[in-house]
Structures are given as structure tokens and as C-alpha cells.
TrEMBL record, chain A:
Entry similarity comment: Belongs to the ubiquitin-activating E1 family. UBA3 subfamily.
Catalytic center residues: 208
Top-level taxon in the UniProt lineage: Eukaryota
Keyword Lipoprotein among UniProt keywords: no
Catalytic reaction(s) noted: ATP + [NEDD8 protein] + [E1 NEDD8-activating enzyme]-L-cysteine = AMP + diphosphate + [E1 NEDD8-activating enzyme]-S-[NEDD8 protein]-yl-L-cysteine
Protein name: NEDD8-activating enzyme E1 catalytic subunit
Domain E2 binding: 341-432
From TrEMBL, chain B:
Domain THIF-type NAD/FAD binding fold: 8-501
GO cellular component: nucleus
Organism: Flemingia macrophylla
UniProt protein name: NEDD8-activating enzyme E1 regulatory subunit
TM region positions: none
């Protein structure tokens, strides 16, 4: 019975009452509301424009166990939208202040802040959560979390995802008046990697334009930033957060612009170009975060249908929202069943690592290998490297407990478009000629 | 380097100092500060509006602690308006925050002149009758009005004002104004002076594509009776001629010319959308006309005469492969023509002002300049009175929505939101507000909705049973996530309306939180 004098007066209508337009396993009742509070654990990645809104929205949507991770400190330019921060907070860690402020205003909610990089956490840390909500501003960070979440995914012998290993993610992004919100159920909906083509490549000016035929203010700025800086300060890394560095670039850009008769170099533009500043306002962040929080509630409680699966929003010319139902890439390296690798039982770990470097779909060097949570070989830190070095000459089959086939995770460096990326990949290792390996395994291979 | 408003940096990059100044001059009134209203206002306060006045007669209850971030434990039993106001003040001390502990309905009934002091009124969680009354009041007082409502997993946003003209519409993708299909004498001369057959390969690959296309188009016209390529074959042939002009594979300027050749084929003159604005009866100006329409009248004159069918030249050119010198020279030619066009328009504006009995200097230069730059992108938005929409909606559109799969849930929500208000007027509570009445409420809501559809002229139309059930399940709940979303949308529209930049939504927005297939309805 919905209690009108309780805090959950409004949420109760959605959680305690039966409905028809609901998820397939919806079980309305006070237990659902209480379970959501007691057992659902949501991680919010990012405590900035989206993160602040997400924490508030989730705390007011029945979730009482939240954690938030963000490596940044508060800056003055955050204050037009990151409403949990005040002028006095500038310089403090975002995650810690955000957690504190929400807990102050909403009693009963627990928020554990993590002031660190997402890569600093053990992979198992992420497995602790029911759902991961992303409020990030970079492709790399999204890709990382996506890879981690998908690494928990296991497939059964029919190549169907095992439900209890699905780690749902809700991802939001904004830029000015535009934004998107999407639901990622690894193995079921496309993951971030499956639809990586959605993100257009970043604009880069050709070097010869910067060096020889500049035409715009941005060309002059990037010349000062990318070329002149190194010529004059060789060895000193340019720090975009250092106002003296920025002023230097601005002055040089002005000189160059005057030389070529090009108008338009301002300090504001200089900052914008060098830092790749994305304009941001409270309203778009509010919209996208709310959509993400709503979907998180639906995934956790099944109280309504879920977004299927990608929502785009554009408020600059009228108001446009659209839902697209993207499909998975069955061959996806990240959320797919994994690259199938057939090996002889005699192969050593070292030889296996050499194979990874040569494998056309992987090209992975400096690999660290884990199997069922055990480190087979770790590149770093030195202590672990020393401990696992002796495994290199052992047979992989033995190291994997003589299993005929199993999943291993490999973490290493791959090269794409002349750039090095660290990446984590899932491999389905199958040993040839071992009992239990049937012909069925050769179907649906890598 | 003066940095007066560093905290606004990220938004200044969107709407500039002028937009920010408009926000800081505005006074906003909020009716009802539940989560929907509070979240709308929070975004506006963060953005730096001049002043806010929160109107709400209720006291904070325990249930409010579960859906409204702007009240907390210490607010229990106190005036909700007062508590929300004080938190909003914390968010931005540059905003003047006031509250009125009064129910919006009472103010609407007994003190309509209260609303005249505001730039804009955000009216949240109002029922149909109050909406209609408030709409009349604001329309009369020339105050911008925006309705926002969240109801369970659904929501409603609707702007209401007579007319909103936008000069700085800032569309994301808009064709540059190069006039490759209609070059003026100075541009032609500039192109004539360039030799496309220059021997130096570096010089050859740094000829800007504008020059290449103007020359090639001219040559084509000379051998085709003065016409530009228009058929598919001709366009193909033109592109082949461009390709033939390349002397090396790495000539980016030629590749750009080929990619931009469609600009040569494009029809001359202005868009049909702009033509519609020029044909509007408001373009026949008199002493009551707004500055915008005076400018339009001058524009109309320009296009018909000195402009030769074209709007004033915008004046900027996109970046393109070119030597710096040629690019800068080309830029200067475009700037000069834009300036010349502007001077003509300025003269026409001053004459028009005189003719209608106004001070010929009453429209500042900078305003006229901005108008010229944006002339091709003007937008005029008009909104029906909500009463008119409710009493006589566009019937063909409504019927289309009712039978269109993509619209059926959204239009169902639209009808049901109105039906729940009628229900509440009849039964003194919203359907499903109380568990005990659920079984009776569902059929009652259904017949209310059908009755409404019949009144609107959609006899025989039905709504999905599941949706009717769902509406009862919601029991008029105000869920935080939905309120934050609807509030976010409403606040964004307010910003566009006040800064007069970008284009506000048209029609009625129905938020569908069930599957996110929200829609704009033009009724």
C-alpha cells in the first residue's frame, strides 16, 4: 500500500503497483522498493556536469548505495552547471565534495567517493556494482569502462550471454545544446566499441597549413601551441592549466596572426582551441543525466520498458529527440564471445604472447595475461613481473589448469592509426586434441 | 586581461556577452516549486538570470524530501517557496531571489496584474483551467509564458506567446554565402586576375577553390548561352572539367572545388522560408511595428531592388586550401561587399523608420549589422493560445497522430493529460491517486478520455488500454528523474527565448518516459 506520508510517496506509485507497460520480470511491492535501497549499488563515473546531476537523480530515484569516481579538482568554470560545488570548493576533489553535498541534503543515501583515475581501480572493483552510470567527457574513458564491464561477460556453450554476468551501463554525453543517452547491456545491446563509428574523428589541421599557409585564427593558435612551443621550450611539456603557458601561446599566436594579416585571435579562442573546450550548460546536462537515471531505475526495478537503446537530443534548432535501435556487432572484440584461438597444449606462455603480437586482429604487445583472476604474467609492477617471470617458459595449458578451453584476458598495447592504445581483450583459448573439445566449437569462431 | 565572469565561460562560448546580458536583465516567475519547477529554475539560476520569484502556497511534507533536491529535513513544515528560494540563492548569489507564499491559482484568480512585472513566467503542474486563464493574462500583458508538467513517466512542455522573432538563429549546418552561382563584379575581377594555368606547381595547388569555381562557371556560361549546369549530365561534365584541371593528385584545392561544385548549381536567390517571412502581413509596417519587422521591410525592399533577388552578403568565407595572401585578399573582397550591402540596408531602414513616423536613428547600427549577417537565417515563431489549441485543435493533424504508430503513445499521453484534469474536476482527485479507488478509476478515466476525444471531433478514436492503465498507475506522481528532464527542457527553452538566440521549440512537446519516443505535436 502506497504510504502518502513517506519519503517514497511518489516512487511508490511506480514500484508498488502492478502495470502492463513494464519489464518482463517486474515484481511490484514494498520488497522491490526496499531491495532497491538495500542491495542495488550504482557507480557513477565522473562527478562533473553529468555526474553531479546523476548523483542527485539517482539518490532521489530510490537508490541508497552509490559510489562516485573522478580524478579532477573543482575549477571556477565548472560553477555554471556543476551545482554541488561552490566558489569555496575550488581546488577540492570533485568526487569528495559531490558525495558530501548530496549526503547532506538527502538523508539515508550513502555515497562513497573515489578521488582517482578510473584505471587505478582493480578490475574487480567494477564488478561490485549492479549498474554503472557514465558521465564522462572522453572517448578513451568510455572505451575503458566499456571494456572492463564487458570483460565480466561470459557466454554459455551456445554462445548466448550468461545473464548473471551482464553488467549494465547507462552512458550519457553532452555538448552545448546536444546530447545522447544510451543503455548498454553487454551481449544484448551494442556496446561502446560496437558502435565506435558513431563518434566522428577529431579535426586536426595539416602541419603544412600551420607551418606555411595559415588562414584562420585557429591555425595561428595551433602553430604556437604545437610547433613554436617545442622550438622555444624544447623539453618542457606544455601545460594547458598553467596560465603562463597559455599566455605565451596566446602572445605567439597574436604575433603570427599579425604577420599574416589574420584577424580573430583572442585569449578566449586560444584557450578554446588548445584545451579543446566544449561549451556546456546546465540544462543539457540535466536532461541527459535525468534520462540516464531514469533508465538506471528501470533496469534495476523493471518498473517500465527500457530505452532501446540510443537516444539523441538536440535543442539548438527547435527540439529534436530520436531513439535509434542499434544492433550489436557479433564480431565485436570487446563484448563478443572473444577471439577464438586454437593452440597446441605444448605452447609456452612466452610463445603465446608472441602469437598475440602477430595475430592480425590483436597486434598486442607488452601483454599481461590473467586467467580466472590469476596473474599468469604481469608486465608491471617490477615485483609482480619478477614473481610471474618463471611462467613464461611454462606451458599455457598447464598454467590454465589443463582445461580444454577457457577465457583469458590479455592487457597490452596495440597500435591503431599510428597511435598507441592500451587495451584489454578477451580471448577464448581452445586446446587442440584434448578430450571434451567437440566439433561444435569450430562453429561461430573468431 | 579582465575576466569578469570566468564562471560563465562555458556558456559564454554559446550565447556570448549579449546573450548573457539579456539573461541578467530578465526576471522570471515560477509557479509551483515541486521538483519540476525547482529543477527548471535551478538551471536558470546557474545560468545567471537577473531575478526569480517563486510562487507556491504549500508547506514541505515528508514526501517532498523524496523527490525534491531543493528542500531538506530542516524544511519540513515550512513554506516550500521559502525553502526552495533560499537554496536557489545559494547556487548563485548574483541572482535576486524572492518568494511569494500563495497558491498560483489564487494569484491567477485574484491578482492577474501580478504577472505583468516579469519577463517570463514558468508555470508548472497547472491544470487545464488555470493554464487557460494564465495564458490570457500573460498574452494580454505581453509576458512570455512556458508551461511544464511532469506526471508519472510523462511530461508536457509548451511555450505560449504571440510571436517570437529570431535573428541569431545560429543553425548548426547552414550553407556558406559564397555566391558562386551569382558572383558580383569585384569577385569576378579577382578571379579573372588569377591564371589557372600557372606553371609553378605550388602556386597551382594553392589557388582557392572559390576562384577556380568562379572562373570555370564563367567559362561554362559563356559556352552555354549564359546558363549554369542544370541537368545531371551537365553537372557531371562540369565536374570532369574540374578534374581535368588538376595537374597532380595531391591538389586539395581542386578536390575542394569538386566537392563544392554543387554550390555553382544551386538556384540563385532566397529560400522559400525567407520568402514566407517577407510575404507576411507584418512586413507591411506602421508606427506600431516592432524593430524586427521594420528591418524585414527594409530587407524586402533591398532584395527586390539593389540586391537583385539576393539577400545582403553574409561576408565570411569558410577555410579552404589557399596561400595566405590569396585567402586574406578573398576575405577582404567578401567583407567589402557585405559592408556595401549593409550600408544600403541601413539607408533603407532609416527611410522606413522616417516613413512610419519614428526616429530614424532608433535602431542601432549594430542591430542592423547583425540582421544583415543573419538575413538568410531569420525565423519567426508563433504560438496559438492554449485555449484555442484545447478547444479547436488542428483536427487533420490530430487524426493523423492518432493513427500513426510513431505518434500514438505521445498523442495518447497528450489526450490523457487533459483527461486527468477533467477527471480531477469531476471527482476531486486524480485517477489512481489512491490505491483503493484504482478499480473504479480506470474505466472512469477511459470514458473521460473518450468523451474528450469526441468533443474534439475524433469520434470513434480509441486509446491503448495499457496506456490508460499506466496513467492511473502513475496517480499524479511527480518523479524526480522525470521532473529533472522536463525541467531541463523547459529551462533550455527559456534561455533561447530570453537570449533571442537559437530557435525555440514549436508546438507542444510530449515527453514519453516509457520508451523515450517523445514527440512534438502541432495542434
Amino acid at each position: 500500500m502506497a504510504d502518502t506520508s513517506s519519503r517514497s510517496r511518489d516512487l511508490d506509485k511506480l514500484l508498488l503497483r502492478p502495470g502492463n507497460l513494464v519489464g518482463p520480470r517486474f515484481e511490484p511491492g514494498p520488497e522491490l522498493r526496499d531491495d532497491l535501497q538495500a542491495y542495488a549499488k550504482v557507480l557513477v563515473v565522473g562527478a562533473g556536469g553529468l555526474g553531479c546531476e546523476l548523483l542527485k537523480d539517482l539518490a532521489l530515484s530510490g537508490f541508497k548505495n552509490l559510489e562516485v569516481i573522478d580524478m579532477d579538482r573543482i575549477e571556477v568554470t565548472n560553477l555554471n552547471r556543476q551545482f554541488l560545488f561552490r566558489l569555496e570548493d575550488v581546488g577540492k576533489p570533485k568526487a569528495e565534495v559531490a558525495a558530501k553535498r548530496v549526503m547532506e541534503r538527502i538523508s539515508g543515501v550513502q555515497i562513497v567517493p573515489h578521488f582517482c583515475r578510473i584505471e587505478d581501480k582493480e578490475i574487480e572493483f567494477y564488478n561490485d556494482f549492479s549498474i554503472i552510470a557514465l558521465g564522462l567527457d572522453s572517448i578513451e574513458a568510455r572505451s575503458y569502462i566499456n571494456t572492463v564491464a564487458c570483460s565480466f561477460l561470459e557466454y554459455d556453450s551456445n554462445d548466448n550471454p550468461r545473464e548473471e554476468t551482464i553488467k549494465p551501463m547507462v552512458d550519457g554525453g553532452t555538448e552545448g545544446f546536444k546530447g545522447h543517452a544510451r543503455v548498454i547491456l553487454p551481449g544484448i545491446t551494442p556496446c561502446f566499441e560496437c558502435t565506435i563509428w558513431l563518434f566522428p574523428p577529431q579535426v586536426k589541421f595539416p602541419l603544412c597549413t600551420l607551418a606555411e599557409t595559415p588562414r584562420t585564427a585557429a591555425h595561428c593558435i595551433e602553430y604556437a601551441h604545437l610547433i613554436k612551443w617545442n622550438e622555444v621550450h624544447g623539453g618542457v611539456a606544455f601545460d594547458p592549466d598553467n596560465p603562463e603557458h597559455m599566455k605565451w601561446v596566446y602572445d605567439e599566436a597574436v604575433k603570427r596572426a599579425e604577420l599574416f594579416g589574420i584577424p580573430g585571435v583572442t585569449y578566449s579562442l586560444t584557450q578554446g582551441v588548445v584545451k579543446n573546450i566544449i561549451p556546456a550548460i546546465a540544462s543539457t546536462n540535466a536532461i541527459i543525466s535525468a534520462a540516464c537515471a531514469l533508465e538506471t531505475l528501470k533496469i534495476a526495478s523493471e518498473c517500465s520498458k527500457t530505452l532501446s537503446n540510443y537516444l539523441t537530443y538536440n535543442g539548438s534548432e527547435g527540439l529534436h529527440t530520436e531513439v535509434a535501435e542499434f544492433e550489436r556487432d557479433k564480431e565485436c572484440l570487446v563484448c563478443g564471445p572473444g577471439i577464438r584461438i586454437e593452440l597446441d597444449t605444448s605452447i609456452t606462455l612466452q610463445k603465446f604472447m608472441d602469437l598475440l603480437e602477430e595475430h592480425p586482429k590483436l597486434r598486442l604487445s607488452k601483454a599481461s595475461i590473467t586467467h580466472q583472476g590469476k596473474n599468469l604474467y604481469m608486465q608491471a609492477p617490477p615485483v609482480l613481473e619478477e614473481m610471474t617471470r618463471s611462467n613464461l617458459s611454462r606451458s599455457l595449458f598447464n598454467l590454465m589448469g589443463k582445461l580444454p578451453k577457457d577465457v583469458v584476458h590479455v592487457n597490452g598495447i596495440t597500435i591503431k592509426n599510428d597511435q598507441k592504445f592500451s587495451c584489454l581483450r578477451k580471448l577464448r583459448v581452445v586446446f587442440k586434441g584434448v578430450d571434451g573439445v567437440t566439433d561444435m566449437d569450430t562453429a561461430g569462431g573468431a | 586581461m579582465a575576466e569578469p565572469k570566468v564562471k560563465y565561460d562555458r556558456q559564454l562560448r554559446i550565447w556570448g556577452e549579449q546573450g548573457q546580458a539579456a539573461l541578467e536583465k530578465s526576471s522570471i516567475c515560477l509557479l509551483n516549486c515541486g521538483p519540476t519547477g525547482s529543477e527548471t529554475l535551478k538551471n536558470l539560476v546557474l545560468g545567471g538570470v537577473g531575478s526569480i520569484t517563486v510562487v507556491d502556497g504549500s508547506k514541505v511534507e515528508v514526501g517532498d524530501l523524496g523527490n525534491n533536491f531543493l528542500v531538506d529535513e530542516s524544511s519540513l513544515g515550512k513554506s516550500k517557496a521559502k525553502c526552495v528560494c533560499s537554496f536557489l540563492q545559494e547556487l548563485n548569489d548574483a541572482v535576486k531571489a524572492k518568494f511569494v507564499e500563495e497558491s498560483p491559482e489564487t494569484l491567477i484568480e485574484t491578482n492577474p496584474s501580478f504577472f505583468s512585472q516579469f519577463t517570463l513566467v514558468v508555470a508548472t503542474q497547472l491544470v487545464e483551467n488555470s493554464m487557460i486563464k494564465l495564458d490570457r493574462i500573460c498574452r494580454e500583458a505581453n509576458v512570455i509564458l512556458i508551461f511544464a508538467r511532469s506526471y508519472g513517466l510523462t511530461g508536457f512542455v509548451r511555450i505560449s506567446l504571440k510571436e517570437h522573432a529570431v535573428v541569431e538563429s545560429k543553425p548548426e549546418h547552414f550553407l556558406d554565402d559564397l555566391r558562386l552561382n551569382n558572383p558580383w563584379p569585384e569577385l569576378k575581377r579577382f578571379a579573372d586576375d588569377v591564371d589557372l594555368n600557372v606553371q609553378d606547381p605550388v602556386a597551382h595547388k594553392h589557388i582557392p577553390y572559390v576562384v577556380i569555381l568562379v572562373k570555370m562557371a564563367d567559362e561554362w556560361a559563356k559556352s552555354h548561352g549564359g546558363r549554369l549546369p542544370s541537368t545531371r549530365e551537365e553537372k557531371k561534365e562540369f565536374k570532369e572539367l574540374l578534374k581535368a584541371g588538376m595537374v597532380a593528385q595531391d591538389e586539395d584545392n581542386y578536390k575542394e572545388a569538386i566537392d563544392s561544385s554543387f554550390k555553382v548549381f544551386a538556384p540563385r536567390g532566397i529560400s522559400s522560408e525567407l520568402q514566407q517571412i517577407l510575404n507576411d502581413s507584418s512586413a507591411e509596417v506602421d508606427s506600431n511595428s516592432s524593430d524586427f519587422w521594420v528591418l524585414v521591410a527594409a530587407l524586402k525592399d533591398f532584395i527586390a531592388n539593389e540586391g537583385g533577388g539576393e539577400a545582403p552578403l553574409e561576408g565570411s568565407i569558410p577555410d579552404m586550401t589557399s596561400s595566405t595572401e590569396q585567402y586574406v585578399n578573398l576575405q577582404n573582397i567578401y567583407h567589402a561587399k557585405a559592408e556595401a550591402d549593409f550600408l544600403v540596408i541601413e539607408r533603407l531602414v532609416r527611410n522606413t523608420l522616417k516613413n512610419i513616423g519614428r526616429d530614424s536613428n532608433s535602431i542601432p547600427r549594430s542591430t542592423i549589422k547583425s540582421f544583415c549577417k543573419n538575413a538568410r537565417k531569420l525565423k519567426v515563431c508563433r504560438y496559438r493560445l492554449i485555449e484555442d489549441e484545447f478547444n479547436s485543435p488542428n483536427l487533420p493533424e490530430l487524426q493523423k497522430y492518432l493513427t500513426d504508430e510513431d505518434y500514438s503513445i505521445a498523442v495518447g499521453i497528450y489526450i490523457l493529460l487533459r483527461a486527468v484534469d477533467r477527471f480531477a474536476a469531476n471527482y476531486n482527485s486524480f485517477p489512481g491517486q489512491f490505491d483503493s479507488a484504482m478499480d473504479e478509476d480506470i474505466p472512469r478515466l477511459k470514458s473521460t478520455a473518450i468523451g474528450l476525444l469526441n468533443d474534439l471531433g475524433c469520434n470513434g478514436a480509441t486509446l491503448a488500454e495499457d496506456l490508460i492503465n499506466e496513467m492511473c498507475r502513475f496517480g499524479a506522481a511527480e518523479l524526480h528523474a522525470v521532473a529533472a528532464l522536463v525541467g531541463g527542457i523547459a529551462s533550455q527553452e527559456v534561455i533561447k527565448l530570453i537570449t533571442k538566440q537559437f530557435v525555440p521549440m514549436s508546438g507542444t512537446y510530449i515527453f514519453n518516459g516509457i520508451d523515450h519516443k517523445s514527440q512534438l505535436l502541432s495542434l
